[in-house]
Amino acid sequence: MKKTIAILITFMLLTSLLLSAALPASAKKSKDEFSYLTMKLDKDLLGQDQYVRWIIPWDEIFEDGKQYTFFADVRFGEDCTQSNGSVYVNMYAWDTLEHAQADGNFGTDLITWIDFAAWPGNGTPKGVWQEYTYTCDPTKGTYGAFSGKTVTPGAVWISIGYYLAAGTVDVREIGIKDDQGNIIFSQGFENGIDFNEPHFIHSDDIAPETEGETWAINTEKKAGEASEEPSEEPSEEPSEEPSEEPSEEPSEEPSEEPSEEPSEQPSEEPSEEPSEEPSEVASEPVAESAAESAQPAESTPAESTPAESTPAQSSGGPGAWLWIVIGAVAVAAVIAVVLVLIMKKKKK
Length: 348
Description:
Blueprint: H1 2-32, E1 33-41, E2 50-57, H2 58-61, E3 68-76, E4 81-94, H3 97-101, H4 106-109, E5 110-119, E6 130-136, E7 155-177, E8 183-187, E9 200-202, E10 215-221, H5 278-281, H6 288-293, H7 318-347
Antiparallel strand pairs: 1-7, 1-10, 2-7, 2-9, 3-6, 3-7, 4-5, 4-7, 7-8
């Protein structure tokens, strides 16, 4: 019987050790990767309305008279194309929540708007992750009947989509920071998209049943954290006598600038109308020049690395796993003591 108890205790201790080795490894993997939303609109469907939109009632997170920074970590695909339009992430402030939910009348209901991340834009590259930001006070009217006035919005939305454009767009995170730099709203994609979320609106072709077709949730390794483990053996034996000089000089230092520059600066003032037919085109700006010239200095792209203020990672971590292991060992010890006491009683 003593042998049986010893085997049982050994088994439980080995199980605890295996947990302590395996669980932190899985946690590390999740920290090395991030999730992002991919949306894709085929070139043949250019001009079709496609978007996802998060509407935030004003009273939930905003206050009058304060500056807010809207940000998005975005990568525009190499296949992006447009016909006097844009692939965008934008901010719209509306006078009422009802108008925000129903794509209200631009001339009378829209207070201010900006495509703060858009392709084509002023220096916007393709195929590169970048954080785009735009800072403003949404109570300051810049459009239609509210231009030049100060008014409390009923709601603000952040939207991802296409206006007279097509291609692929990846978004890791969108959000809002207050005037102290604290994130007060963040939408990440570690848990996919919650189609039942209050005030979440989407076009018909973005739906649970179209996942993998028009949209998907993907994962990618964080920049600079790719595996760097050296190979066990060199690919070939080193030569007996190294050459006196290297075979060739290294090429010039790689340029850190984006590979593409805008073809030219817009020559005209942007149109004041985001769209002539809001009910059909989801209230997006009408021209490429609007997406470019409406973007002030604050909305220029930041460094081409993922944002540091990423959405919450998967719960747990080395500390949590340590407590799990300690708990498992403690349980094993208690069981062992109980079994020993039982055996002693039986002997008596």
